[in-house]
Amino acid sequence: MRKRPRLAFVERPSPNFNERKGHEISFLVLHYTAMDTAEAAIQRLCDPASQVSAHYVVAEDGTVYRLVAEDKRAWHAGISYWDTHTDLNSRSVGIEIANNGSSPYPEAQMQAVIDLSQDIANRYGIRAFYVVGHSDIAPDRKQDPGHFFDWKRLSTRNLGVWPVPTMDDYRRSQLWGDLEVIQGLNKLGYRSNITLPTLVTAFQRHYQPEAFGVGGSPGIADAVTKARLYCLLRRKAIGDGVRASQAKRKNKKKNDKSKSGRKSKR
Ligand SMILES: [Zn+2]
Fold first, then answer.
1. The Cα angle at residue 144 between residues 236 and 61, in degrees rounded to 5
2. Which of 6, 56, 229, 260 is the most exposed place for a label (fewest CB within 10 A)?
């Protein structure tokens, strides 16, 4: 078996963090820096006046910089929402990827992002549906990590979920109107009090990047948008069910243990 190389970091501590207020880490949030170089972004993320930071910055050449310890709350998400959860800064690890927003991500950088993300997701047991982009959790304000980011590739490592709709998914979603689409997007995780075109655009940045290519029409839910959303909801419902029964079993075990503990004390 190939041994995975140990992750190496360059330390560039940022003063921009505070405490997590008791929240557990259950999300991984990916960003692009929207700046020309990694160094310029790091300087900004370390500047006390900027009031922003992230746990990690991944440079174009794949070098990973560590700015904030994972047990601290970095300031990357801002006002944010996903799947009923708010204040994602308190609940996530944030990775900034050096990219100006209009160019593809180099291979060395993608590989480093994947290795780092997988390590984080494994250590905290982050579910695939909770590996999200900044544009997912703040769709009316943010566009990162953008449609150049290869979410499909990440999903092959259980980081995020890539929808591959069946014929049945197409059939069942084809009559969806605006209401069903917006309800579906909310069920997947997106905030509800945002206009449909904005939400659809955010969804497409993540799950239908070809909508931003030649001939595409971002913001309009077409048959592919609907089928991919339907497919994701179907898979999320299965995942939610499994997690609910796991939690139930865990609770039962805990209760049985405390019952037998009480007995043996008698
Ligand atoms: Zn961002």
1. 110
2. 6
